[in-house]
Amino acid sequence: MIIGIIGVLLILVAWAVEAEESVRKHKSLIDLKFAIIYLVATSCLAIYSYQINDAIFFWFQIGLLAIVLFEIFYTIVVKKVHRR
To answer: What are 2-11's pLDDT values in tens digits?
Structure first.
């Protein structure tokens, strides 16, 4: 179980670092089409992990959902700013 938690935390930290990099450079580092597909896939996996009562996998997916939602929001904002 500890190995699973460590893996989850490392992946979430890696995604968070990528999101922070986007904000710091004022650039979108994620393709919007990819992000939307990833969002749907992660949502499905979150629902599945809830159904099978896998808490670690569930919270991992919820963390990824939050980061991807932020990336999508930031991508849309950055694209609007660069169009002006």
So the answer is: 887 888 888 8
Rounded-to-integer distance, Cα 45 and Cα 1, Å: 19
Give backbone dihedrals phi and psi of 47, rounded to 5 degrees, phi first.
Answer: -65, -45
Q: 72: burial class by Cβ within 10 Å (0-12, 13-18, 19+)?
A: middle
Cα–Cα nearest to 22, from 83, 80, 75: 75
Spell out the residues 6+ positions from residue 35 whose beta carbon is closer than 8 angstroms to its own. Answer: 68, 71, 72, 75
- Encoded tokens for 61: 């997916």
- pTM check: above 0.90: no
